[in-house]
Amino acid sequence: MTHPHPDRHPSRHGQLRRAVLSSYLGSVIEYYDFLLYATASAVVFNKVFFANLDPLVGTVASFGTLATGYFARPLGGILFGHFGDRIGRKRMLVLSMTMMGLGSTLIGLLPTSAQIGAWAPVLLVVLRVVQGVAVGGEWGGAVLMSAEHATSRRGLWASFTNAGAPSGMVLSTLVLAVSAGATGEQAFLAWGWRIPFLLSVVLLAVGLFVRARVTETPVFTEAVRTTPATPPLLDVLRNHPRNLLLSIGVGFGAFIAQGTLTTFVISYAVQAGFPRQTVLNALTVSSVAAIAGIIGFSALSDRFGRRPLVLAGAAAMAVWAFLLFPLIDSGSTFLLAVAVVVGQGVVHACMYGPLAALYTELFSTRARYTGASLGYQIAGIGAGVSPVVFASVLAGGAGTTTVSIIIAAGCVLTIACILALRETATLDLGGSTETSAAPAARA
Question: pTM here?
Fold first, then answer.
């Protein structure tokens, strides 16, 4: 398998390093805020904002507000993608990071339902939508900043954006755990949970400093000079409809698994009798493993192709779905750790890591931000919906086997869609992108 020759200009390499660092830190910050909400929805919000409901119903309602952020992500992909494809990637990334940081900080200042009644969950949902729009715009731009600066090993460099998700999970879980340990159970529910959200201001300042030093991608700059501008969404729907639909299907199974392993498992394991801190510790270890797994499997996809890695991961996840809950139900802390570490750090990383490069390779340059964002974020709804669906399934009296079947079905969809796509790892995102992307769109 051949690749474009690496660019030998040091300035280009310097910008690549800055772009990758900026994309990684931006993704860490965005997902710190976004997943902090997910963790808090499983352990705090059902008691703070939905305290008058039955505990199980409160958990479903809490996950419901979590889901609104995922539904808002495609909107963010369209809005930021449109302007990112018209005026540039960098400006949109600064805006998306600012929106996320301010939205999360305001969540940390939000009064509880005991203080302002029904307005509390309403405002919570509004701020969650702001988070969703922001993260919907962040991912596509961050991936493109790395992928379009890279001249070789695109899977590796683009994967740092995806590695930002578990990195953000580690950071959010650790800060939440430290806050809980330092304040105690009662004080944590009263005010301690706010500390991690308020720290978003500090992360925002660091992220904006790094991001300001990155230049616009050379691929986009060249495309602006040589390619007439058309409405990006219309371009995607007219020229890449099949790739858009297949990209949604490819990602959907990965996101269902992600929602299971990073959100639903927390409340399930706590209800199964594990101490909350034990579950969060296991999740932290699995997220650290996921960082290495995502980068490692993505690097392998540069050598063996995107399709084989995603296929292997999806098939393994379909099997792991039926082992996950029996391992947790065993009551063993070791087996709980095995369930989430292998699930998130190995199996899910294999099917999820290569998607960063894959999505960028499915669309032409002047529609790439919109196309990649829209496909990825619509698929991402699976991560927001799955905890709600699974909690409702269990509340309705069905067993975990039903949940496992749903996860496996999502993996089968991923397998079918990735088989329908042509291999994209050797495509050139530069001058020949417009022509090289067309066969993939018709494949």
Answer: 0.82
